[in-house]
Write a structure and sequence with these properties.
Distance between the termini of chain A: 69 Å
Number of strands of chain A: 20
Number of helices of chain A: 18
Oligomer: heterodimer
Order of helices and strands of chain B: HEHEEHEEHEHEHEEEEEH
Structural class of chain B: alpha/beta
Helix content of chain B: 25-40%
Largest interface: A-B, 51 and 51 residues
Strand content of chain B: 25-35%
Radius of gyration of chain B: 17 Å
Radius of gyration of chain A: 34 Å
Strand order of the largest sheet of chain B: 6-4-7-8-3-9-10-11-12
Helix content of chain A: 25-40%
Largest sheet of chain B: 9 strands, mixed
Chain lengths: 484, 223
């Protein structure tokens, strides 16, 4: 077992787009009893000395124009949940720890990547793209990994025997012991793990509680740590809200993208892919605008999902500004491909045909992409059948075009409705040349029976048409096709 | 200086009149006498081919079908964008087109059609893309030509005959009038013949060089 602990100290800022980089100093604060404590501060505030854990008064003394905002625990929780889903793409064992930390068992996944360095590199690349500030630690036990993350130890320690030596110089306050216990230990001069480990075990337990030797045991791997694996929601349904109304559909792409990222993580974690998703745009006083996006082929690839959504959002017209966006995966199916496959492919593989058609369909509308199949029917209008773009390849393979080599050539274009020849532009009987007729007599078993004589007509201007007359009414000629 | 000119000459949109071989790869048209006249011996790939025709039904699609079928090798697709009528599956299947990899895109506006064609050409998924356009500005055609250069596809643009006399960035331009097929413009030097006759055959069309007597007329020459 090898555990990776990921700590997100600036999650409260990461959930507010643009807060970290803005030039105004900003601190996120939280009430603790009567005091107000800085939870995290943005780059501008940190530059002036504002630190997490400071009392607000002190922070304001350091930084005159400090803006403060209260924590939004709901947002942070949702962000952590998404991060946990994302981590499930790398490992089967993921647990949340406390408010801002994740524990990921990477020992089993290392082999897939070659070695732990490559795996950690992939994880770091993902986090960088999502712009999450993160501290990481890797160790043989979860508690040690957390300690390393907190203390900023970059070593990978696989061996529990070596742990004792490495934790010795580390300060107790970085570990999992409660602050009160740390303070009590500091009062007797014990500030590091090394000093604590030198004390007799039974006496430490008596003076500072059983919690201290228990913590040391879990830290050094002598006692199993209780890890509650993360549970995945049955359905994907997420909502993003923002304090102002967004009217431009290109600006809406950003929240949509975030939701799609989360959805892609969820899909990978559940080993599922989606075929239909629904965006609901909430307005202040107007019913929600709901758009359904259908995919031609089930997908769990985030870039593909984003591309399809982008094409659709570009032609979205909203009745008024949008204040919240909900994404729901309305149809999902079990994935039969291995999960790693999805991660490696991001952006590297060229687009495949299905993705192109999905993208085109997303922009042009659901009925814009027409597919065709040949059907064994003598009636011309039934010999070509529109084939829904969503039909899977397997279904189509089952149908075989009939071998009709002996029938006269067919036109490239068929009119949706036969047009009376009198209405055909610039048609002149005197300048037309008729082919031999082809008699088609079929369909007497259903309502649409046809007894027609078909001719190819060459006009003087070179155009060739496919015309027919009904045997019941031999004087009415109709154009049905064009030999383009 | 010499190097600059050399690099300029290698740009796909710069071509010299004297060249018989095409700068871009070509795809045999399937019509022997036409191939002999076209630079590089076929339809240009990575470039736009424009066909102006007086009206639908002159064999303008049959002319291209052999090349379309050939362009679909390697699992590549054929896409029609805003065709004037609905394509008829049995005729396409008879011409050797795999309907599995064929789609027709119906577009409400010219902008949509241009966008879709551009996406299809750039994706690299399509072996051939055929686009039908009515009125369109030179800028849009230029974009289309650039998209065609980006992909490795056969890009065919169908337009009304009235546009044949206007300037166009397409690399190869043909006009079909009645039974006459005329090469309006091509990159590199044209073969001896610039005019052909499209004859209807049961398999589609066959292309024949215009009768020799017509060629000696002093004022008939390819533009």
């Amino acid at each position: 077992m090898l555990w990776l602990a990921l700590q997100f100290p600036r999650l409260a800022l990461d959930t507010r787009p643009g807060a970290e980089a803005q030039s105004e100093p900003l601190a996120i604060i939280e009430a603790q009893g009567a005091r107000r404590i800085v939870v995290t501060a943005n780059a501008a505030a940190r530059a002036q000395g504002v630190r997490a854990g400071q009392v607000l008064g002190a922070a304001q003394a350091l930084c005159a124009g400090l803006k403060t905002e209260a924590r939004r625990p709901k947002d942070e929780d949702a962000a952590m949940q998404n991060l946990a889903l994302w981590a499930l793409g790398y490992s089967a064992q993921v647990a949340r720890h406390g408010e801002h930390a994740l524990l990921v068992e990477i020992g089993a996944s290392c082999r897939l990547f070659g070695n732990e360095r490559k795996l950690l590199q992939a994880i770091a690349t993902d986090l960088e793209r999502e712009a999450h500030a993160c501290a990481a630690g890797v160790a043989a036990t979860p508690a040690a990994a957390r300690l390393f993350a907190q203390a900023g130890i970059g070593r990978i320690v696989r061996d529990t025997d070596a742990l004792r030596e490495i934790v010795a110089p580390l300060a107790l306050i970085h570990g999992d012991l409660p602050v009160g216990t740390c303070e009590a230990l500091a009062a007797v001069g014990v500030r590091t793990y090394g000093a604590l480990l030198r004390l007799p075990r039974a006496e430490v337990a008596r003076r500072f509680g059983q919690i201290v030797p228990d913590h040391l045991d879990t830290l050094l791997g002598r006692r199993a740590d209780v890890i509650v694996p993360m549970r995945i929601a049955e359905r994907f349904h997420q909502r993003l809200e923002w304090p102002y109304a967004i009217t431009s559909s290109s600006a809406l792409l950003f929240p949509a993208r975030r939701l799609l990222m989360a959805a892609a993580h969820w899909l990978v974690a559940c080993q599922r892919s989606t075929t239909r998703l629904r965006f609901a745009f909430a307005h202040e006083d107007h019913p929600d605008t709901v758009i359904d996006l259908g995919l031609g082929q089930a997908s769990a690839d985030r870039e593909h999902l984003v591309a399809v959504a982008r094409a659709r959002l570009e032609r979205l017209a909203l009745p008024q500004g949008c204040i919240a966006l909900t994404l729901e995966l309305t149809e999902t199916q079990a994935l039969d491909a291995p999960s790693r496959d999805l991660f490696v492919r991001h952006g590297e593989a060229p687009e495949d045909a299905q993705q192109l058609l999905d993208r085109l369909q997303g922009r042009l509308g659901d009925t814009a992409v027409e597919r065709f199949a040949v059907q064994a029917d003598h009636r011309p209008e039934r010999a070509s059948r529109p084939d829904a773009a969503t039909t899977s390849r397997k279904d189509r393979d089952a149908r075989v075009a009939p071998a009709e080599a002996r029938i006269p050539p067919r036109p490239m274009f068929l009119l949706p409705q036969p047009t009376p020849i009198g209405q055909w532009p610039s048609f002149d009987w005197r300048k037309a040349r008729l082919s031999l007729p082809e008699r088609i007599e079929s369909g007497w078993w259903d309502e649409a029976d046809a007894t027609r004589d078909y001719y190819r007509i060459d006009q003087i201007d070179g155009a060739r048409l496919w015309v027919f007359r009904n045997r019941q009414a031999p004087h009415d000629w109709f154009v049905q096709g064009i030999y383009a | 200086m010499a190097a600059t000119i050399e690099s300029l000459l290698h740009r796909p949109d710069v071509w010299r009149g004297g060249d018989r071989h095409a700068t871009t790869p070509t795809l045999a048209s399937g019509h022997r006498e036409l191939d002999a006249a076209l630079p590089g011996g076929g339809w240009p790939l990575q470039a736009l081919t424009e066909i102006c025709h007086a009206r639908p039904g002159l064999g303008e699609l049959s002319l291209m079908l052999p090349a379309f079928a050939r362009a679909m090798s390697d699992e590549r697709w054929l896409l029609f964008v805003s065709a004037p009528h609905r394509p008829y599956a049995p005729a396409l299947a008879a011409a050797g087109i795999d309907l599995e990899r064929f789609a027709h895109l119906r577009c409400a506006t010219t902008e949509q059609a241009l966008w879709a064609a551009e996406q299809a050409l750039r994706s690299g998924v399509c072996g051939a893309v055929a686009l039908w356009l009515g009125q369109s500005d030179a800028n849009a055609l230029r974009r289309l030509q650039l998209a065609a250069e980006a992909g490795h596809s056969l890009a065919v643009l169908y337009r009304p005959l009235a546009h044949a006399e206007q300037a166009s960035p397409a690399a190869l331009r043909l006009a079909i009038e009645g039974e006459q097929l005329r090469i309006v413009k091509c990159r590199g030097a044209l073969g001896e013949i610039g005019r052909f006759v499209l004859r209807r055959s049961p398999q589609g069309v066959s292309v024949h060089a215009e009768a020799a007597s017509a060629r000696v007329l002093p004022f008939v020459r390819a533009r």
